[in-house]
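So, could you explain the following?
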Amino acid sequence: MKHYTVKLQTVKLESGSYHITAKAKIGKTPVNLVVDTGASHSCFDLKFIKRLNHKIESDSAGNNDLNVGLGEVGFESKITYLQDFEIGGLKVEDYMVALLDLTHVNKTYHFLGKPKVHGLLGCDFLIRYMAVIDYMKGEMTLWCKD
């Protein structure tokens, strides 16, 4: 089994409130992700993905569970399949992600002088790659069977 190490950054939002972030790439485009252990699915900003010219689909396959925990009810899921996602040297093909408007997140980040967020890395990814987060070292280890 092969492992990959991802450097993590701690973003202080307010007193006692933090996000853990990681850098990744879609193709050659760098992305900033919040590592969100409470998110059931990974999601990316819809406008950002449109700018990358990725094919965007309605969730006609019935993956309505992509909506769970995202704070909105009754919206139509949009999805895409990332063909060239890379994090910590781990290359992932055909990675299905939900697409949302992350404007509210980025307004907060901008107000705090923090870098733009392109997406959230959720439990679908973290469990699939058996992620281990080491807060002392500020890194996450991902494990891959191939």
About this structure: The helical segments are 46-51, 103-111, 123-128. The chain has a mean pLDDT of 89. Residues 103-111 form the longest helix (9 residues).
